[in-house]
Write a structure and sequence with these properties.
Layout: E1 3-12, E2 15-25, E3 30-34, H1 41-49, E4 56-61, E5 64-65, E6 76-79, H2 91-101, H3 108-117, H4 133-145, E7 151-155, H5 163-180, E8 183-188, H6 191-197, E9 200-205, E10 208-213, H7 215-220, H8 225-230, E11 237-241, E12 251-256, E13 262-266, E14 280-284, E15 291-294, E16 310-321, E17 326-331, E18 337-342, E19 356-361, E20 367-370
Parallel strand pairs: 3-8, 3-9, 6-7, 7-8
Antiparallel strand pairs: 1-2, 1-4, 4-5, 9-10, 11-12, 11-14, 12-13, 14-20, 15-19, 16-17, 16-19, 17-18
Helix pairs in contact: 2-4, 3-4
The structure holds adenosine-5'-triphosphate.
């Protein structure tokens, strides 16, 4: 079911936890509310669950207005971080609990289906204390899904698991969501988790949605410094826009502050309204989009650097082996430290601290943000 939040807001006394918010969660999607502690994501989820009454606004489920409906009357279930399983009931009885309470007599077929879905068939008779954290989490999930909710809300459900198990459960959850096909709304502060699982992510900050979109769009085309930095390393460089139009209608050219370099980017990737000559921006590029070319002469362009690439010179200050890639820290004349990830670096071509390099990347991978933002 599609969830539509219109102007939904929540204040506690004179503190506004969620500012009026408009949000549509498409039917059957895996939607993540992502943000740091205190940004209002749990409060938003609790309003959808009916556990928190909105101060203003409305919540629709499909066509139905559920804003004032009590939690148990909503076709919505919630899975919390602390699972809340019944310790004296075994896995089967925990999963069957909701159906039995509603007076459903024959539950064994549905329980078996759920055990299958969460791959716990061989644990059916165990008590929660005989299960690992990840297995307990699966029971909690099965217990919520057996009620056939139209929406499943997940509040940091993987928060108590260690990193490896969490990564494994992220893929599990995604598989289960695809299999059951209902709308999942997942709250997390872990950007990798949101990016791995969700079709769509709303990044929240200070009770507001900063940006909403598919993970790749948020990562590659962030519209604020908060989103750029929250979703990874953004390599922000201070720059000033040169006369718009000089690089064609679709392109912007900017002068890097403190360096003899100009960079180009698609105009659509500039998140500043009404940009003109002299507008101060922060230009960003993700670390894995940058290539490095060694140079002995800081003023010449090494062979193999494409003419149409953006270029900056710099000096390596750190080189670290990360397993999947090498991470270089490069000090540029603009005074910024830029991070570069390079894969497939052979032992011989590895760059060492002190080396002079040209950093280069495609203009299409460049974005620009408002430098005047707080
Ligand atoms: P976390 O990841 O830490 O749970 P969150 O982003 O989910 O954070 P919320 O739990 O939604 O944040 O809280 C948002 C803000 O509202 C916080 O500053 C919190 O202190 C405040 N808040 C939440 N519930 C209440 C309440 N019942 N009374 C007063 N303030 C509250």
């Amino acid at each position: 079911m599609t969830i539509t939040l219109s102007g939904i807001a929540k204040t506690f006394g004179d503190f506004t936890a969620v500012h009026p918010l408009d949000l549509t969660v498409p039917e059957g999607s895996f939607f993540a509310l992502l943000g740091a502690s205190g940004c209002g994501k749990t409060t938003t989820l609790r309003m959808i669950a009916g556990l928190e009454e909105p101060t203003s606004g409305s919540i629709l489920l499909g066509e139905d207005d559920i804003t004032r409906l009590p939690p148990h009357k909503r076709p919505v279930n919630t899975v919390f971080q602390n699972y809340a399983l019944f310790p004296h009931l075994d896995v089967t009885e925990n999963i069957a609990f909701g159906l039995r309470r509603r007076g459903v007599k024959s539950v064994s077929k549905q329980v078996a289906e759920m055990l299958d879905l969460v791959q716990l068939g061989d644990m059916a008779r165990r008590k929660p204390r005989q299960l690992s954290g990840g297995q307990q989490q699966r029971v909690a999930l099965a217990r919520a899904l057996i009620n056939r909710p139209q929406v499943l809300l997940l509040d940091e459900p993987l928060g108590a698991l260690d990193l490896k198990l969490r990564r494994q459960m992220q893929l599990e959850l995604k598989r289960i969501q695809t299999e059951v096909g209902i709308t999942f709304v997942h709250v997390t502060h872990d950007q990798e988790e949101a990016m791995t699982m969700a079709d769509s992510v709303a990044v929240m900050y200070g009770g507001r949605v900063e940006q909403l979109g598919p993970p790749a769009e948020l990562y590659e085309n962030p519209r604020s410094t908060f989103v750029a930095n929250f979703l990874g390393t953004s390599n922000l460089i201070e720059a000033e826009v040169l006369s718009p139009g000089t690089a064609g209608p679709e392109q912007l050219r900017v002068q890097v502050v403190g360096a003899d370099a100009t960079l180009r980017l698609p105009a659509a990737r500039c998140a500043v309204d009404g940009v003109g000559a002299g507008t101060k921006v922060l230009v960003g590029v993700r670390p894995e989009k940058i290539s490095l070319a060694h140079t002995d002469d800081a003023d010449s362009v090494p062979r193999g650097v494409p003419e149409d690439h953006n270029r900056l010179t710099g000096r390596i200050t750190d080189a670290s082996y990360l397993g999947v890639s090498w991470q270089y820290v490069v000090e540029s004349p603009a005074g910024t430290q830029l991070t570069v990830y390079e894969q497939n670096v052979s032992r011989d071509s590895r760059l060492t601290p002190g080396a002079h390099v040209v950093l280069h990347w495609q203009p299409a991978h460049t974005f620009a943000l408002d430098a005047a933002q707080d």
